[in-house]
Amino acid sequence: MDGAEYRRKSVSALDRLRRRWTAQSLERRFTIAASLVVGLSMVTLGYWVERRIRNGWEQGMAEIGAHYLEALLAPHVLELEHADALTEESKQRIQALIADSRLGQRVTMIKIWSRSGQLVYSTGQAKEAARLQPSRLATLLEGRVLVSIQNDSHGDGRDDPGLLESYAPIYKPGTRTIVAIGEFYEVSHSLDREVVQLRYATWFLILNVAIIIGFLLSLTIRRASRTISSQQSLLAANLARASALARRNNMLRRAADRARLDSAVSNEVYLARIGADLHDGPIQMLSLLMLRLPDKPPELRAPLERLIQQTLAELRNLSAGLVLPEIRDLSPSDTIEAAIKRHEQQTGTAVGRNLVDLPEQMPEAIRFCAFRVVQEALMNGYKHAQGRGQHVATRFAAETLEIVISDDGPGNEAQQPEPTLQRPRLGLRGLETRVKALRGSLTITPQPQGGLQLRALLPVRRRSPTTGL
Predict the structure, then answer these.
(1) Is CATH 3.30.450.20 the classification given to domain 22-255?
(2) Which of 8, 208, 215, 432 is deepest in the core (most CB within 10 A)?
(3) How many CB atoms lie within 10 A of CB 368?
(4) 0.70 cut: is pTM over it?
């Protein structure tokens, strides 16, 4: 199997393990993780405690054996204080002492080393000219006892597993002068039995502690899992309720948008009806009255004729200002162009324009409002600035229609326009109300070179083929 195949299978196995793990419930995942953590912690603690207990017992038994060995051998190795060898007589006494005492029952072999690290006596077979390791010798000359477990033979022809190897300094009686180093191998059966018993007791205690901790963790996890589950259910219910409210609010918002746009359109229709009623009612009656004036005496006919002419002019202007031209089938750009041309025809002035291409799909209320903004702003500029430097510009960005109408202000030779050219205006306050009704904004600012600039922003929500918005 090549490396790429091995990596692919490893990634696939890890992916399956991850999916299986994520498929488990939160309670089960937490229980497994907590069990692994507690189990590994308890195992580590158990091995550490067992090792410390065993080391402590080994060191204690080695020191006891060292003191016992020192008490027996110290009187027979005093000559090593000034020499590096024992006499045959001293060796025979030591051999007899070991054979006739309980020490021989506990110790399988004894070696005696001089302070220089040279072997001077051994109860078993030993290599000639054997020497202690310098590091071990230096440690022993400091008065420390070294201990370890040995499982091999020691030159006496026997394999004695479980022997406790100890090195201990032998002091001159009544002093702290080291005269020799003793090495002995003690049978550790009793130590093994004690350690095994302590091991069982330690692991039994650790197992009980682990079970108690696991049980308490399980109860805590189960309670937390139930709390989380109930909170998740409550959260899901709240989310569903919030989603339903959001859908309902969206429907209400769309209905409000439709009502707002329909209201703007209805307002234009209402104004058109008022204009039509003025044209078909009072204007017709006054026209009929003009036809009958010749029947009146001359002294009454002249003043009545002037009054009727002025009234007819005012009513015609008012009626023409309220009635919009037919712009339902016009595009937004054509609608604004129609407002500019109508103003030019009525006032005989020229208006500059910079009209960009606008989206074809635009609500009817936005187009009506754009027409009214251009109509009112141009008429206001004509009244106060005699139409000097009037200019209309449009821009469309971020779903917003921007209309800017500006003029150069009145000149030094400013004169009021002819009364017959004045138009009844909607008024800037009414225009601002109309724009704000469509969630737009209207600002009027003076220009540095003179004149005013009117800027209208109309947010456009393109009509959807399904919702009509």
Answers:
(1) yes
(2) 432
(3) 23
(4) no
